[in-house]
Amino acid sequence: MKMPTFLLAAMAPRRVFVGSAGEDSWADPANEFLSCVAAGEVWEKLGLPGFPCEDSIPGPTTAIYGGRVGYQIREGKHFLSR
Question: Is 8 within 8 Å of 34 (Cβ atoms)?
Answer without folding.
Answer: no
